[in-house]
Amino acid sequence: MTDPGEVRASDAEREAVVEQLRVASVEGRLTLAELTDRTEAAYTATTHAELALLTQDLPAGATPAHMPAPAREGKKRRWFVGVMGESKRRGTWRIDKELGAVAVMGEVLLDLREAEVRTDMVDILAVSVMGDIKIIVPDGVNVDLEGVAIMGEKKVKVLEAPSGMNVPVVRIKAYAVMGEIKVIGDSQVKPLQRGFAAWREHWERLHGEDWREIGRQVRVDGRELRKQLRDQHRNLRRGF
Asked: How far apart are CA 65 and CA 85, in angstroms?
């Protein structure tokens, strides 16, 4: 008899888990990095057990198909300004409205990875005048960068998810005048300590295999094989 957890997951079930994760993020239960990691894992899951692993620490029950974003106070933004100086925001913080970044002969750094995103989309207006604006996001998000660069530069260096996935979106309107605005992913900076390690250990228990031991044995076998080849090569040279 097939273990219920090993039943193959359907596309509809994967999408339902992705929606549950999105709602959990809007409720402040997941950071942007956690949401991105779990969303990617949901789309690559093959069984019910693997999907359950992604939501086991979230409230059970049905989630609404569309949860409205928290109401904004008019068109107000949360601004980060560096005028001949620095303005940096990293670590744990909350994003519940649109953001603005202005660098005038200065520097602005926004690290979104550990932010609690209470909106359906992160919306940023970035203006750089002979300054530098750097926005750090988790690899796997969908970055929509538009705007104008005059004697300056705007660029994205993020490992984005395959098309068709309902992944978090970061939308940036960028205006650079003799300045630079760049969006970079985890792979370009010091990575965060991911909570996914705990899931991996649970995954190993579900599958009854210790992947660390397998990896260690492969490395040992590889070293032994290289030693045998070197010994054989020496013996052949001696024979001649």
From this structure: 44
User: Six-digit token pair at 121?
Assistant: 């989309």
Give the pLDDT confidence of 221-230 residue by residue, as tens digits: 545 655 665 6
Tokens of 64: 């609404």
Question: How confident is the model over 105-111, as a mean pLDDT?
Answer: 97
Task: Tell whether the model's pLDDT for residue 61 goes beyond 60.
Answer: no
Look at 226 and 65; give whichever has higher pLDDT: 226
CB 213, CB 166: distance < 8 Å: no
* Residue whose tokens read 């796997």: 140
What is the Cα–Cα distance from 105 to 165, expressed in whole angstroms? 38
Pick from 184, 190, 159: nearest CA to 172 = 184
Give Cα 216 distance to the centre of its chain. Answer: 28
Contact indicator for 124, 101 with CB cutoff of 8 Å: yes
Q: What is the pLDDT of residue 163?
A: 81
Q: What letter represents residue 171's amino acid?
A: R
Q: Which residues contact 103 (CB under 8 A, 6 or more apart)?
A: 81, 82, 83, 87, 127, 128, 129, 131, 132, 133, 179
Instruction: Give kind and range of the element (H or E) at residue 153.
Output: strand 153-157
